[in-house]
């Protein structure tokens, strides 16, 4: 059984058990706005009435604290090493959601050990009953730490930009998730688009490659037919000077300029998530 199957079996579908829906926000490469999306999407989900926790799952290169201008006294590293309790590491963030922040520059989290695997799963299991949604802000790429973190999620959201390297790495990530984790629906946000409709074009290009090279390899053992991997576009976030200003000021865009085009685009993504699109 895969990690995601084990996780779902542990709590999903059990009568009387209420658990957060877990969303992994990931990307094929760094620098595409993944943490920006995680934080502002959390704020948008709060506006729609959800109780949200953002867990900084980029355990060795964390930067969620920088984006939110937070100075944590306790991190996940302290929880993992037994120096602090989980409750002491939960921290309120601007935007009305909670965060669990990780440390930065910690070499021990550059690879997935059995200890890290068990500790991360235990933390998520403990906090899941307290929230409506947990957003996992993962690292970039397809390292074993990133893939394991994504495997714990119910839903996956890929953040990509129109740059060719971003699209190539996004495709590589989707291919691994489809083959190793049996993901058949992967959601996507196109960030930093320069014109309306560019996100749909990007999604279409990626879907064509997936249909040609990924789906045919995923055959059912029963009848031998190919399964289909669907890439669902949740939205496109335009290039917006308000984003750069918010990042430089270390403020949430959803709070600083909630009416700007990029903030409205993030709100639209939240609406699709809560409606089950």
From TrEMBL:
GO terms for cellular component: cytoplasmic side of plasma membrane; cytosol. Keywords: ATP-binding, Cell projection, Cilium, Flagellum, Nucleotide-binding. One of its GO terms (biological process) is negative regulation of cell division. InterPro entries: CobQ/CobB/MinD/ParA_Nub-bd_dom (IPR002586), FlhG (IPR033875), MinD_FleN (IPR025501), P-loop_NTPase (IPR027417), ParA/MinD_ATPase (IPR050625). Residues 23-251 form the CobQ/CobB/MinD/ParA nucleotide binding domain. GO terms for molecular function: ATP binding; ATP hydrolysis activity. The keyword ATP-binding applies. This is Flagellar synthesis regulator FleN. It comes from Piscinibacter sakaiensis (Ideonella sakaiensis). It comes from the Bacteria.
């Amino acid at each position: 059984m895969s990690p995601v199957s084990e996780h779902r079996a542990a709590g999903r579908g059990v009568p009387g058990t209420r658990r957060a829906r877990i969303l992994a926000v990931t990307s094929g490469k760094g620098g595409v706005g993944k943490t920006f999306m995680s934080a502002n999407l959390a704020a948008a989900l709060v506006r729609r009435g959800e109780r949200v926790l953002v867990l900084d799952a980029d355990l060795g290169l964390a930067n969620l604290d920088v984006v939110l201008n937070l100075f944590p006294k306790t991190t996940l590293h302290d929880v993992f090493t037994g120096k602090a309790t989980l409750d002491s590491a939960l921290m309120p963030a601007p935007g009305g959601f909670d965060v669990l922040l990780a440390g930065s520059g910690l070499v021990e989290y550059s690879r997935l050990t059995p200890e890290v695997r068990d500790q991360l799963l235990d933390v998520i299991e403990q906090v899941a009953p307290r929230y409506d949604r947990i957003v996992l802000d993962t690292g970039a790429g397809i390292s074993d730490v990133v893939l394991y973190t994504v495997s714990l999620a119910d839903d996956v959201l890929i953040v990509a930009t129109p740059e060719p390297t971003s699209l190539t790495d996004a495709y590589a990530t989707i291919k691994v998730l489809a083959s190793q984790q049996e993901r058949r629906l992967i959601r996507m946000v196109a960030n930093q688009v320069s014109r309306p409709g560019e996100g749909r074009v990007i999604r279409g290009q990626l879907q064509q490659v997936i249909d040609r090279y990924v789906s045919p390899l995923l055959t059912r053992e029963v009848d031998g037919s190919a399964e289909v991997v669907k890439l669902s576009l949740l939205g496109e976030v335009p290039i917006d000077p308000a984003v750069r200003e918010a990042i430089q000021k270390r403020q949430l865009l959803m709070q600083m300029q909630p009416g700007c085009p990029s903030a409205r685009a993030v709100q639209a993504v939240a609406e699709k998530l809560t409606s089950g699109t």
